[in-house]
Amino acid sequence: MSTAASAETARKAKKHTRYLIPFRIWPYLFLTPFLALYVSFQIYPILYSFTTSFMSWDGMGKKTFVGLQNYVTIFTKDPFFWKSIGNTMLIMLMSTPIVIVFGLLLATFLFQLTKGRSFFQTINFLPYITTPVAIGLLFGILFDWSSGSVNALLLKLGMVQEGINFLGEPLSARIIVAVIIIWKYTGYHMAIYLAGISAISPDLYEAAKVDGSSPAHTFLKITIPLLAPITMFLILTDLIGGLQMFDEPRLLFSANAAAVGGPERSVLTAIWYYFDVTFAGFRFGYGSAVAFTLFLIIFVFTVISYLFLGRRERE
């Protein structure tokens, strides 16, 4: 009986497994459309662009294999690429500290509010979700040399004798791009800091108040140290995002098609340079090499950020 029972059990298990196999493949069938689209529109273009970076190609004619020549040119003979990297770093250096400080101060102020917090949060966050086209038009109108609102105000107040060419000088052009970044991203930093402050235990503030700590002392000794991981996260993501900056300077100077990169290419960013080389100069092979060089730079900063943040969390 035991042998017969074992055989019957094995037969039922085999039958059950035979019916179960079709159910096991259903998840893969449901994933197939997404995977097919992802491979077609994400993985394949990346691989195609990578292979193109070893070619000389104008987008229409025959491709010519040039090996590493495009990369050699970028690293040894192309001053504009490294100028674009330097411009990006300089603009981020001008804007990131201010964005961090303003975001933290705004978050601290709003956290203390009992009424109207949601309203002020929304008002400060609106620039972050404003479309880049609108931002470019807005700041172009504000700082235009002949009819800009800022020049009109300065002339009316008697602070200047003639309009200032804000968009025609390298330093002022960089400052205006930095102002755009500050105006746009302060609300985002505020929201991140506000979430971080909300996660701090109220008991710490109560204990500090009992010990006679002033608000400024509490802010310096409790709030800022506990928000240090968030601060480092924002700084590193700002740096990585800054290397991908394109919309702000490109749209601000789009009125003058000849001014690629602004005055003396002072606001030429890496992505703008890639766009100009590839789609204006029809150097698709070289443009692909620029894109992958920028990818390597961003990848290095990303790895550094993950390692640094991981060490901070372990500490």
Automatic annotation (TrEMBL):
InterPro entries per record: ABC_transporter_permease (IPR051393), MetI-like (IPR000515), MetI-like_sf (IPR035906)
ABC transmembrane type-1 domain mapped to chain residues: 85-305
Protein topology in the membrane: Multi-pass membrane protein
GO biological process: transmembrane transport
Pfam families: BPD_transp_1
Transmembrane segments: 25-47, 89-113, 125-143, 219-239, 286-309
Cellular localisation: Cell membrane
Keywords: Cell membrane, Membrane, Sugar transport, Transmembrane, Transmembrane helix, Transport
Principal place of residence: membrane
GO cellular component term, pick one: plasma membrane
Superkingdom assignment: Bacteria
Gene3D superfamilies: MetI-like (1.10.3720.10)
Entry keyword annotation includes Acetylation: no
Family: Belongs to the binding-protein-dependent transport system permease family.
Name by which UniProt lists this protein: Multiple sugar transport system permease protein/cellobiose transport system permease protein
Source species taxonomy: Bacteria, Bacillati, Bacillota, Bacilli, Bacillales
